[in-house]
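Comment thread on ticket #2218

A.B. wrote:
> Attaching the input chain for the structure job we discussed in standup.
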Amino acid sequence: MIETAGVQSVSEFDLTKYVGQWFEIGRLPLKWEDHNASCITAHYALAEDGSVTVDNRCFDENGEPTQSLGRALPVDGEPGQLTVSFLPKLLRWLPFTEGDYWVLKIDPQYTVSLVGTPDRKNLWLLARDWDLPEAIKAEYLTEARAQGFDLSEWITPAQDGQVVSDELLNDL
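C.D. wrote:
> Ran it. Output below, let me know if you need it in another format.
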């Protein structure tokens, strides 16, 4: 594992196994994400230039479908670390517009992932299935606590397996 101020990313990570759709099982509060958002998903896809396209979707507190598109770049020499930006393509050159995205724990089958930031302000529990057993949730949250994350404001969004489709977004 790679350590920074007590936060450790995984030392072995295969980005090609990580791509695809993930359901957000839980997170720490985010300034830019609706506290009452539901059916939150993240879809990662490899781009030809080695970057990763990030497509986050959810239903907002009013039940409206929303989408946020970003781009992530692997950090050289740090397999479990990426930097991500959700700014429009033309503004991504600005300094301090990228965030850390560290994979802190992942199962060997790449079906459950704990992702955080080294400053411990952001944390997500992601899974390939929207319904994650409580014992697995507990295992991953125990790892988060062991790495110094405060989970007192943990948010568990409503999930029922529904996904914001392209058709729903096109109807807006």
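A.B. wrote:
> Thanks. Noting for the ticket: The radius of gyration is 15 Å.
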